[in-house]
Amino acid sequence: MKPVDIKQLAGACLRVRGQVQGVGFRPMVWKLAQQHCLRGMVRNDADGVLIKVWGEESSLCAFIKQLPTHCPPLARIDSLETTHMPIEGAEIPADFSIVHSEHGDAHTGVVPDAATCAHCLTDISDTNNRRYRYAFTNCTHCGPRLSIIRRIPYDRANTSMAVFELCPRCASEYHDPTDRRFHAQPTACPDCGPGLWLSTGSVKHSNESLAKTGQDDIARAATLLRQGAILAIKGLGGYHLACDATNAEAIQRLRQRKKRPAKPFALMATNLAMIENYCYVSTSEAELLQSTAAPVVLLKMRHTDRLPQAIAPAQHNLGFMLPYSPLHHLLLREMARPLVMTSGNIGGNPQCIDNDQAERELAGIADGFLHHNRDILNRVDDSVARVIDGRMRMLRRARGYAPASLPLPQGFAHNVEVLAFGAELKNTFCLLKDGQAVLSQHMGGLENAATLCDYEHNLALYQQLFSHRPLLLAVDAHPEYLSGKLGRQRAEEAEEQALTLIEVQHHHAHIASCLAENNWPLQQDDNRQVLGVCLDGLGYGDDGDLWGGEFLLTNYRHCQRVGSLQAVAMPGGAQAMRQPWRNTWAQLRQLAPWVQLQGQYHDLPLMRFLADKPLDTLDSMVHKGVNAPLASSCGRLFDAVAAAVGICREQAQYEGQAAIELEALVTTELLAQQHAHAYPFAIIADQKHIMANSQPLPRLHSNKIWRALLSDLQQDTDIAVIAARFHLGLSVGIVDMVEHINRLTATGNGAAFQEVALSGGVFQNRVLFEQVSRQLGAAGYHVLSHSQVPTNDGGISLGQAVIALAKQMQANSNSQRASFPDRPEKRICV
Known about the structure:
9-stranded mixed sheet; disordered C terminus; single chain; DHBP synthase; Nucleotidyltransferase, domain 5; Alpha-Beta Plaits; alpha/beta; 4 domains
């Protein structure tokens, strides 16, 4: 450091918040300070990164300006606060240094697990590098994060790497600010780090005897896979069950053993070129595949006969991902062909993460196990995404994305901590703190006891990681959701402080999630509203009925139902979700008396199929309202249409199967050809449901489409044509309903809304989403939709959180309290 007259120095204290720990941010700051001949220090603490710096004013200004532009690959600055520090009396150090972390309440982000960087790939490929073929190579630009952390600050002692003492060479790298492994907490090498071993019926290596590189066992594992074996492989966030994706017999055995007869399997390929042998890959899809998150990406098949159809039965898409850990890279190089990589679990349980658990639970499925001894502390499944209408759409937000935070839109208070418990299926939860929303990783359906246990583990983990102490809890209004029961129980059992509990209507939460992701501001006057179109399976409605095809005039605080799909009975209740034919029959019985339908359409296989079912019993159930609830569900409408044309008629093997296979029939060419033959929906006023403005609720009725569909079946119309006509008709019907509602609710100032927000799991359907979005755009509407947050129930917790906060801010304002009370009254708002 060159000598400088202290009188010429300027000083600044910088507070940096965001994803700035464990990503090489401090070494970047140190290098930048060296370049500008600055003095001071940088350290991690519970608030993020603190920088105190002195130097010539021009150099100091240049340093501050360059900080955001010199971020490491995994870093993200959410805020940079700069305050002047006086020179007089200051103890100015002689140089710039990196100092140890400080503990305290957390106000910083935790970085998601990241795919192996190019530098580390070079290391494991270089025969002269000491990490050649080492399966646990990483640096500050890549590797495990959330999956191995216990608490913050993100230091090695607070991770599962604490048990591995650094060897002298790794310690030297770890303490060298010029090295990319400086304070890379999981860093290791074959001399000091984790190891892996292959365990089969005949060979079980022990930790003591294994070669630390595990390279021989990786080669042996690849040999077994090529021979048709099924292996359980321990990855970053859990086990996968793997087999050769070109071996139809091995895939069929995997399906039989795992009792997964139809749901598509995910695939892993060596590189992008290999994926392009099987699928079309756009520029956007290639970028997504090669991103640091490395999700599974749904891609259109290029050839339907190059891989066994058993990978994705009745589909025209395949879910591919690229290797995201050194272990995966090394294994795929040995294979030179794609692998099936599906979650290592049984019976709907979460992925196995523990070696002994995997051997115990997967013994009836796997022929062998590729274990390692780096503990997975937190289960993180693979993320799943799809490019729709040119944008990435998150279907399952997990590895690579969680727990990265999202900034709250303008107008939301930053001093209120909120915990939202999410939905029952595809569960995530959400924390609000410091103007950020932290969405957890996907956990799945909470009706599974093991998943519920994992959910509670992650709740405790996140609240510890983010020092989160909520005074406001948000739950779904459904009285039977386990997530809601847990939230209500916490509110009731709180002893140290009263907790405010707010119940949120399911579909309002869907739309609010979309608004928050699109940075829609919270306004104090609440005059501005959007029309939310929410299409999903089921949600508990304000009137106690089941909703699922809703048109909502809404903002964060208010939600009015101004339109809906036709309500149809679900004979058998939950059984109608598993047996699509029940929904077909329920739709048809509204069309005309059943005897009349049987006479008119007696020649159809559909009618002969239904004739063998206990229709008299079902009719009695519907008539008496016993276990046959009315539901305006778009998901059940898709089930009904799919079953009518012969898709999953008897039984659906997994959630959404009927709708997914129906969508798979529709091609771009068919859409263009059948546009003039779209099935017609009708808008009918429901006199039994009166809205707040004293007008009957408009319903989108499907009776006309069933007449057209049954006629097509009689004429032996190709079911792909029928599928196209249904998708087109539904999209036109939705847009017609939007226009109808705008006219119906228009004010003296003109249109009631200009923006339309699309949410709900049905909008995972690429055909429907693109048709609706483009038609709305052509009609002059601004369409809001999801990208980083799932449109399905995986995004609901974000909506719950922002609605609860908005309502609480309004309550505080109404009671003339300027800030959130320290001890609010315990109450429940519905």
